[in-house]
Design a protein that fits this description.
2 domains; 15 strands; 328 residues; alpha/beta; Rossmann fold; Quinone Oxidoreductase, Chain A, domain 1; single chain
Amino acid sequence: MVLHRLATPLIAEERPTPAPGRGEVRLRVEACGVCRTDLHLIDGELPQAHLPIVPGHEVVGTIDAVGPDVIAWKPGDRVGVPWLGGACGVCSYCAQGRENLCDTPVFTGCTRDGGYATHVLVNADFCLPLPARDYPDAALAAPLLCAGLIGGRALRLAGEGAALGLYGFGAAAHILLQVACAEGRRVYAFTRAGDVEAQMLARSLGAIWAGASDEAPPERLDAAIIFAPAGELVPIALAAVRKGGAVVCGGIHMSDIPSFPYRLLWEERRLLSVANLTRADGHAFLAAAARTRVQVHVQRYALDAANMALADLRAGRIHGAAVLVPPG
C-alpha cells in the first residue's frame, strides 16, 4: 500500500519481492500497526517524508533472507522493526548514546519503505527480537513497536512520581497505563469528552479515574503525558500538575500550543517532548512489557483495507490499536 501524493488514499501495488543488500534483512510481514504518525505522514506534517513511500513502522515479521555482512540474524528469526530504522553512528548525538536525535536518521515508513506490505527490507542492526514463544500473536505485538516504545520513553522522562495523567487514550496510553500500574503508580486517563467506551477501557486496565480532557483530576498529578496531537492540552495538563512536576509531549506532531500564563509553568514545572527512540529503549520496554504481560487491544484489518483503518483512526473509532494483517 503506497502513498504517492500527500492527502490522497494509499494505492495497492504489486512489486517484485526485493532482495536484501549489504547489512539488510528481508522480512515476511506478519502484522503492521497503524499509528497516528502515519496520518501525519499522509497529511504532509512530516516534511522529511520521501514519496512515493510505503508507510508503517510497527512491523512484526519473520526473516526470510539475509544480505551480506549480516551475522546477528538468520532466516526464521522473528523480529520487530520500529520507527528508527537507522542512524549514522558518528554524529555527536550518536556518540553520546542518543541515536534518537541523530543528525541524519532513517525512519521506517517515512524515509524508507515500511510495513504496509507483504515483505520489507530493513537495516539488520535496527531490528528488535520478538520471538514467537514470547509474542505468539504478531498483531498483538505490533503496537508495542511505537505506541509502546515511545510511551516507555515518555514515562522515563516523566519521572518516578506516583500520580500520572495520560491525555489521549489511544494505542500508546492503553499500553503505558498497564506498565505504569505495574510500577505501582496511580493512573488518571483523559479522553475526548463523551468517549465513554475509552473511559471504560481505561478503568478495566487499571486506571483509578477516567474522564474528559478538560476535567480536573481528583488529585494533583506528579506528571502528565500528552499523546493526543492537540496543543491546547498543554496548558490544561500544566494546570493539573503539582509543583516540580512534568508534562511530556509524546507525539511526533502537535498542533500549536496556545499562549498561557507563566504561572502554569512556574514553580519548577517542566515541559518537554519525546523524540523518536533508541535501540536501548526498545530492548528495555519490550522486556518490561513481557514482565507486565501487557494486554494489547487491537482491531485487525486486511492489508488492502489500510485506507479504512486510517479513516477509522482519524475519526476516533479505534479503541486500542489498529493493525494490518497481510494475507498468508
